[in-house]
Amino acid sequence: VSLGVMASGSGSNFEAIAHGIINGELNAKIQVLVYNNPDAKVKEKAEKLGIKAVLLNHRDFKTREELDQAIVEIFQNHGVQWVVMAGWMRIITNVLLNAFPRKVINIHPSLLPSFKGINAVEQALKAKVKITGCTVHLVDLAVDSGPILIQSAVPILDDDTPETLHKRIQVQEHLIMVRAIALLPHLENQ
Ligand code: GRF
């Protein structure tokens, strides 16, 4: 599968996908990475891996739709079939979803439908649940919603801070991200 990845942050999920491809676990190619934050660490990771990275700074666009249109053009020009939101911290619009219908996946650090939106890890701690986790799902227009592909559960420990918990969730994120991408060819005809 031909992937276009969108990321805003450190890029550990992006790196997990790239390693899955290098290891031969995934039969896929990352055609291009789009990132929106000039300081995002994901940029250096892409450079090291020899993957093309394009900065689209959301501050340069008047509307969400215009940003998404620019993303769509880059992905279409690079032959992208599947879009992976790997820590994309912007709300997306129909412009992206219409260009890639049922072909956009997202990773979220909670067991959806619990704890949607930002600060999902803090939300789980505050709610005092004993188990949280992470989810990869197909994206629809609402934030952190759409058919779930894979989830992984992570226990919350008594002395967890947002940082320690997020770290353990991320170990699971990297595993389910790779497994979800391996599933994509089986979803092609749905
Ligand atoms: C992940 O926790 C993901 O679930 C959330 O943003 C974070 C991105 O982490 N949506 P990274 O940039 O892949 O390290």
Task: Report on this structure.
By secondary structure, the chain is of the alpha/beta class. It has one domain (2-187): Formyl transferase, N-terminal domain (Rossmann fold), CATH 3.40.50. 38% of the residues lie in helices and 22% in strands. It contains 6 helices and 7 strands, in the order βαβαβαβαβαββα. A 7-stranded mixed sheet has the order 3-2-1-4-5-6-7, sandwiched between helices. Strand 2, helix 2 and strand 3 (53-55) form a beta-alpha-beta unit. The chain is globular. The relative contact order is 0.16. The model has no long low-confidence stretch (mean pLDDT 96). It binds 5-O-phosphono-beta-D-ribofuranosylamine. 5-O-phosphono-beta-D-ribofuranosylamine (GRF) is lined by residues 7, 9-14, 86-87, 107-109, 170, 173. Residues 7, 9-14, 86-87, 107-109, 170, 173 line the site of 5-O-phosphono-beta-D-ribofuranosylamine.
